[in-house]
Amino acid sequence: KQEVTQIPAALSVPEGENLVLNCSFTDSAIYNLQWFRQDPGKGLTSLLLIQSSQREQTSGRLNASLDKSSGRSTLYIAASQPGDSATYLCAVDSNYQLIWGAGTKLIIKP
Amino acid sequence: KAGVTQTPRYLIKTRGQQVTLSCSPISGHRSVSWYQQTPGQGLQFLFEYFSETQRNKGNFPGRFSGRQFSNSRSEMNVSTLELGDSALYLCATSPGSANTEAFFGQGTRLTVV
Fold first, then answer.
1. Within 13 A of A32's CA, how many CA atoms are on the CB side?
2. How far apart are alpha carbons B72 and B32 in whole angstroms?
3. Cα A94–chain centre separation
4. How far is A80 from chain B (nearest CA, A)?
């Protein structure tokens, strides 16, 4: 049974810092891995999709990597801003469903 | 290009009632998935439909059901509501083939009293 874990559960850093969020999964048989952002009380915004054959994807200040063999993904956020404050969730796509981590709640202090 | 539309945005229902939630996908998307989000359990998969066929189902009781129409719009129904069904219900759509990005609606916030 696929299980997804995100570490840390919460993170508070001053504005301008570079930071790394971690996601691990137990079964390497995945189609892809997606990172999402969720603002309080809102839906999910897709940030990056890494297909199973890829090693990393970049979008602006965000970079996500995938190491299927070790069951790990990282989301790197460069030069963090207060607007980056949100909960970040990773999900692995397996058999027509997304299996989710519990999320990392990120607070960027001005 | 319009995004994923979920209606209604908010619902308050009484225990024992039933409820129907709707999801209209992005144009051209044929796969619709439903998820339940609660503070205690996080995000959990309910079911996925593609071309009106359910391809996968999560571990929820039979009170939770869904369907998809020929225009790819989907509905989910919860019968005999319980207090524990209070949650944010999210719908995701994608083109339908494997390895494609999922896009989410804003969700329906269901409160059972």
1. 17
2. 8
3. 16
4. 24
Q: How far separated are the first and last CA of chain A, in Å rounded?
A: 41
The predicted-structure confidence for B19-34, as pLDDT tens digits, reads as follows 999 999 999 999 999 9
Number of Cβ within 10 Å of residue A60's Cβ equals 8
Question: Which among A32, A52, A97 has CB closest to B45?
Answer: A97
Is B43 a residue whose pLDDT tops 70?
Answer: yes
Beta bridge partner(s), residue B92: B33, B104
Residues A31, B48: C-beta atoms closer than 8 Å: no
A55-108 pLDDT, tens digit each: 999 999 999 999 999 999 999 999 999 999 999 999 999 888 999 999 999 999
d(CA A97, CA B47): 8
